[in-house]
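SAMPLE LOG
Freezer: B-3
Tube label: C17
Construct: single chain, 82 aa
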Amino acid sequence: MERTEYQNNVIKRYYQNQDSIMLQKLSELVTELYLADEKKKPRLWKRVEAALKNMKVPQAKINQILEREDPVFLAKFLEGKL
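STRUCTURE (predicted):
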C-alpha cells in the first residue's frame, strides 16, 4: 500500500522531532513515577528504559538511571538534555 504525500510528510516530521517527543514522554513519566504506587513503578521504569533507548542514550547511562530508580535523578538527567 502506497502512502500519500501528506502521510509521508507526517512520518518525516515525526522522525525529525523524535528526540523532542521522547523528552516530553520522559518528563511525563517522571511525574507518573512520583505519583505511582509500588505496583506500577516497574512498568513505568520499563517505559523509561525504552524511551532512553529511542533517544540513543548510552547503555551505561541508562543502566545508571535504572539502578537508582530515582525520579529526581531522572529529572536532573533530563534537565541536562533540554
